[in-house]
Amino acid sequence: MTPKGRVGPAVPPEVGSAAVPRRSAAALVCALAAAAGLLAGCSSGSSGGSTASAFLSDWSKGNLQSAAGRTGAPDRAVADLQQVTNDLQVTHADLRLGTVSGSRADFSAALTLAGLGVWRYQGHLGLRQTNGGHWIVAWAPSDIYPGLGPGQRLGRTRTLPPRGAILDRTGAPLVLPTAVVTVGIVPGRLTNPAAAIAALQATTGSDPARVQQLLAGAKPDQFLPVITLRQADYAKAKPVLFPIPGLSFQQKTENLPPTPTFGRAVLGQLGQATADALKQAGPGFEASDDVGLSGLELAYQRQLAGAPSGSVNRASPCAPRSTNASRTRPKPPWPPRRTPPRSSPSSPPRVSCWRSPTLRPTPRSTGPSAGSTRRGPRSRSSPPPPSSRPA
Predict the structure, then answer these.
(1) Three-class SS state of 181
(2) What is the bridge-based pairing of β-strands 309-315 and 117-129?
(3) Each residue of 199-243: pLDDT tens digit?
């Protein structure tokens, strides 16, 4: 909301003219400068609306250093703002000023979180006047999100529904449960990143540029899935990969065709979410997600993959571990060849000591008419799923 008293484009009368006596010149200059935000002393007044508006504008534009400069604790403010931007993976921020009353300025926030969507909430800023009469944002963690206290930080979770299976015309799945090994990286354990990336490329064909992209900004103890291999393929690569410090291996079961080449032209492939693949997949997917690259997997990517659910949580030093206040649960599977149930409306966000669900999953419709898709009751949660499956 634009503050009231905005100066229009008209040229003001000349000081000292009949329209503006010299005795009122100082008052006029002060008023014009205050309305334009050019003179802090005159713009102080009894409201800090101009300061709050400028702070929110800087935050929205990503000018965190400039926004922090309008607070009473610039160093702490820029660190807090950068931390929430990184931890929530904010790609766009839209913050708008609401009502300003005394030392409080209400605002509405719409933060776009990568791979999840828009998180909306209502917040408020604490304002105060300095000895010189200037208004500043007093600064506390609660200026970012209401109730956020010292030592607390916001985090996020992301859960993907299990990918839908492609069925034949009799309703039998064209893919079968298959033992696989996910090869990944734990950044903090790497001793020679270049050698590890080269070995992954030589043994599995992983794209080095994409592996480096996964490593950029990752937490030291985070498991970064690189590729998922069938047991037979992993056995061939194991002598080279297993001894390398920083590589990690997770065994599980995935639904795969009987052989890597079975029905490939029709069923298609799942693989690394390259830039082109992400563009075709549409919004809501990340570089670490599996996406359809060809065939039915590509043609029905959105229906087969569904949409992620997620939450924004508040990590607090008040307890040794996280407890769920309310968590989004995976949707039950729906019968093949039927329209899936509509998702229930999102409940208003609320924050407990630890976790606040804010985003709900959006189920997709069934897949190709030549077969159909269905989901099992499993769900996947952060860290993200493997970035590649065998062909």
Answers:
(1) strand
(2) unpaired
(3) 999 999 999 999 998 898 788 888 998 998 999 999 999 999 999
- Other Cβ atoms less than 10 A from the Cβ of 199: the count is 18
pTM of the full structure: 0.58
Element of type H or E holding 172: none
Q: Are 316 and 346 in contact (CB under 8 A)?
A: no
Distance separating alpha carbons of residues 90 and 88, to the nearest angstrom: 5
The two three-digit tokens of residue 105, written as one number: 């300025």
Q: Report how far Cα 377 is from the mean position of its chain's Cα atoms.
A: 25
Peptide bond into 335 cis (omega under 30): no
Concatenating the DSSP letter of every residue in 28-48 gives: HHHHHHHHHT--HHHHHTT--
The residues facing 155 across adjacent strands are 313
Structure tokens at 201: 């490329």
Domains in the chain, start-ordered, CATH in brackets? 45-151 (3.10.450.50), 155-174+263-391 (3.90.1310), 176-256 (3.90.1310.10)
Which residue, among 20, 1, 3, has the nearest Cα to 11 in the 3D structure?
A: 20
Look up residue 233 and give its two tokens.
Answer: 């393929």
The first and second tokens of residue 130, run together, are 């300095």
Q: How confident is the model at residue 45 (pLDDT cuts 50, 70, 90)?
A: low
